[in-house]
From TrEMBL:
Residues 1-109 are annotated as: Disordered. GO terms for molecular function: initiator methionyl aminopeptidase activity; metal ion binding; metalloaminopeptidase activity. Keywords: Aminopeptidase, Cytoplasm, Hydrolase, Metal-binding, Protease. It comes from Psylliodes chrysocephalus. This is Methionine aminopeptidase 2. It catalyses: Release of N-terminal amino acids, preferentially methionine, from peptides and arylamides. It is found in: Cytoplasm. Its cofactor is Zn(2+); Co(2+); Mn(2+); Fe(2+). It holds the Pfam family Peptidase_M24. Residues 1-12 have a biased composition (Basic and acidic residues). It is an enzyme of class 3 (hydrolase).
């Protein structure tokens, strides 16, 4: 077909050359007629060129090129530039017909992968447990592979949430600048994540508020309305947020800094998290993971303003198991030696997260509370206050047992809810989670990934090119 197209084009060009020669003879005698002919011919050529372009693209109607390329009547507009902009704006598809992500990202992950198959995370082999080599046989075991296929729908939901997390955080890493307020940062991140996850009530959305804990504050801080806190050049901020599909949660975090003097602290915590991920596996004792994390974390030192600090694992923070609509599902993954001898089991999901500090390595509640979550196991409790009943209805409808913050209550339309929220907390229906801080003047860092303990292998589902 390509050769036939070329020959036809050459014949057409020869005919056009002969027409040009005849026209040139006439044009010398009548200049006005010449101008009209050239203008008419130019318009005709544009139409022909556009038809040639469109003939090779079955995704466009045949008249798209004509509409975009036709010259303006007054002749003083750059139609080529305008047409190119329109094409870029209109054509969000790759060669294979798949939609293409925008910058900043606005196209949902489901649209980007119309076949419904989402990117697989990093695959790792399970570690050997007490010289038991059966962990190596999981990949080839037909029984384990069959179990893997049985849960593929669940894995696919988690991967969708993971891809939304990846694209959101990579956008934020490029977008964020010193001098921005924490509310600006959280709103940009949350608005982006909502678009990518295609927020749909409790079926798809954000799993918990965006943590942006600064410096000595290690976790559970997000700004309430009116908070004017700014991300400065010398700050160390932990960006911790979650996405979910049908309650399947991705819990993933990173540390962001502008000043390179904190690089060693960031490196220590990233290394410790990766150590914990590598150590995790079916039949592995949780306490063994904590011991390996602490050994790596505390092998690092960081020099800040002429003083050297050993990086310490924050011993009262830890990773945790995850289940549907339940961010903390019962098992904890320590980041220091000691702890539970409980083992990890097949088809469990875990958030492997580590925190390093230049301070004491212990956190306490501090500052104004912003994070809240309905108690997963709370029985029915009668409520007397109508405002408490109304607020609980808002929580049940919008968040269920997923964590939320005051900004999100504002967004859901709740007003004058402070007394009602306190009442729900006092009765144990809702738990509050204040910011967790080490000593003032120190710096803390965090990295976190969600892993799936599949029958055949371990999948670091939230892994990305960034970390």
């Amino acid at each position: 077909m390509a050769a036939l197209k070329t020959e036809i084009k050459e014949d057409k060009e020869n005919d056009e050359d002969q027409e040009h020669a005849a026209e040139d003879d006439v044009d010398g005698a009548n200049p006005e007629a010449s101008k009209k002919k050239k203008k008419k011919k130019k318009k005709k050529n544009n139409v022909i060129q556009d038809e040639d372009v469109n003939s090779g693209d079955t995704n466009k109607p045949a008249n798209v090129g004509v509409t975009e390329e036709a010259p303006a009547e007054n002749g003083d507009v750059d139609n080529d530039g305008d047409a190119e902009k329109k094409k870029k704006k209109r054509n969000r598809k790759k060669a294979g017909g798949k939609p293409k992500q925008t910058d900043p990202p606005t196209v949902s992950i489901a649209e980007l992968f119309p076949d419904g198959v989402f990117p697989i995370g990093e695959i790792q082999d399970y570690p050997l447990v007490k010289d038991d080599r059966s962990a190596r046989d999981r990949v080839t075991s037909e029984e384990k592979r069959a179990l893997d296929r049985m849960h593929n729908d669940i894995y696919n939901e988690v991967r969708l949430a993971a891809e939304a997390h990846r694209q959101t955080r990579q956008h934020i890493q490029r977008w964020i600048k010193p001098g921005m307020t924490m509310i600006q940062i959280c709103e940009e991140l949350e608005n982006t994540a909502r678009k990518l996850i295609a927020e749909n009530g409790l079926k798809a959305g954000l799993a918990f508020p965006t943590g942006c804990s600064k410096n000595h504050c290690a976790a559970h801080y997000t700004p309430n309305a009116g908070d004017k806190t700014v991300f400065e050049y010398d700050d160390v901020v932990k960006i911790d947020f979650g996405t979910h599909i049908n309650g399947r949660i991705i819990d993933c975090a990173f540390t962001h800094t502008f000043n390179p003097k904190y690089n060693k602290l960031v490196e220590a915590v990233r290394d410790a998290t990766n150590t914990g991920i590598k150590a995790a596996g079916i039949d592995v004792q949780l306490c063994d993971i904590g011991a390996q994390i602490q050994e790596v974390m505390e092998s690092y030192e960081v020099e800040l303003d002429g003083k050297t600090y050993q990086v310490k694992s924050i011993r009262n923070l830890n990773g945790h198991s995850i289940s549907p609509y339940r961010i903390h599902a019962g098992k904890t993954v320590p980041i220091v030696k000691g702890g539970e001898a409980t083992v990890m089991e097949e088809n469990e999901f875990y958030a492997i997260e580590t925190f390093g500090s230049t301070g004491r390595g212990v956190v306490h509640d501090d500052m104004e509370c912003s994070h809240y979550m309905k108690n997963f196991d709370v029985p029915y409790v009668p409520l007397r206050l109508q405002s408490s009943k109304s607020l609980l209805n808002v929580i049940n409808k919008n968040f269920g047992t997923l964590a939320f913050c005051k900004r999100w209550l504002d967004r859901a339309g709740a007003t004058k809810y402070q007394m009602a929220l306190k009442d729900l907390c006092d009765k144990g229906i809702v738990d509050d989670y204040p910011p967790l801080c080490d000593i003032k003047g120190c710096y803390t860092a965090q990295f976190e990934h969600t892993i799936m303990l599949r029958p055949t292998c371990k999948e670091v589902v939230s892994r990305g090119d960034d970390y």
